[in-house]
Amino acid sequence: MAEYLETTVDKFIFRVARDRLYNADGIWAVWVESQGDGLVRVGLTDYVQQHSGDVAFAHIKPLGTKLALAEEFAEIETIKATVSFHAPVAGEIVAINSDLDLSPEIINQDPYEKGWLALIRATNWKADRARLLDPQGYFSLMRSQAEEELKKL
Amino acid sequence: MSRTATYHTTVRWTGEHWGHLAMGNGPEMRFAPPPDAQGYENVFTPEDAFVAAANTCVMLMFIWAAKRFKLNLLGYECRTEGTKLIELDRTEIFTRLQFRPVIRVAAGDEPPAVVEARVRRALASAQKYSLVANSVKSEIVVEPEIVVEVN
To answer: Smallest CA–CA separation between A52 and chain B, in Å?
Structure first.
C-alpha cells in the first residue's frame, strides 16, 4: 500500500504517492519488479483526476504500440473535458487495464492503484527516469498548479 | 479568465400575499405562497421554484452528461418531490429532495447492462455537477427507472 504526501488547496485534498515518479502532466510511473524486466505501470495522479472531472471513457493506445518519450498514449473523456496524456517513458504498451472498459470511474476512485492505465516495457528507463520528478518535486509542482487554477476563479 | 457568474431576480410586493417576479433571463410572473402556507392554488410559489430549480438543473446536467457518456437518449421525465420539515422553533427547511427520473435510452450495439451502468454513472455525475443540486443542503435521493430499449 502506497504512502502519500497530502495537501489541501481550497477545500480539495490532493495526494501524491511516495513510491513512484511523475511527469509534469501528472502521469505517474512506477517500476514493477514483480512482473519481469523493464515494466513500468503508469496512471493519472489524484490532482489530475480531480481536476479533469468524472471519467466517462478512457482510451489507451493499443497493445504493442511503441511509444517515444512524451508521445501521446492516452485520452480521457470526462464529463467536462477531453484530455490527452503523454508517455512518461519510452517503450511498448504491453498491458492495458481492462477494468477501464466497463468501469472507467476507478480512475477517479483509486487513481494510484486500481485505476492504473497501462503497463509499458520501458526501452530506456534509466535515462527516462532521470527526467521524471520525484514525489516531493511533483508535490510542489502540483500544489503550484492547483494554486494557479485557484487564482483564475 | 473569470470563472464566476451571477444571476438575478427581482421581486415586488403587489398587495396582500401576492408578488411579482422578474427573472434575470426574461420571464415575469406572479407568485404567492402555496395553500398550506396561507396561499393560493395555481400560482408560482417559492416552494415549487426551489424544487423546480433542482429538478430542471439536474435534467439539463443529465442531458449534457448523456452526450459525454455517449448515450442515445430517447426520453427523460422526472418528478421531484421536496419534503419540508417544520422544526420546533417553527423554522422550516427542505430536508429532502427525491428525484424519480424515468430515463429511456437505446442500447444500440451494446449489451443493455453495460448501457444501464453508464446511465447510472451519467446520472450520478449530473447530480454531482448540477449547480443547484450542489448548492442545496437538503438530502438528495435519486431513484431512477432506466429503460434500455433493444432493437
So the answer is: 13
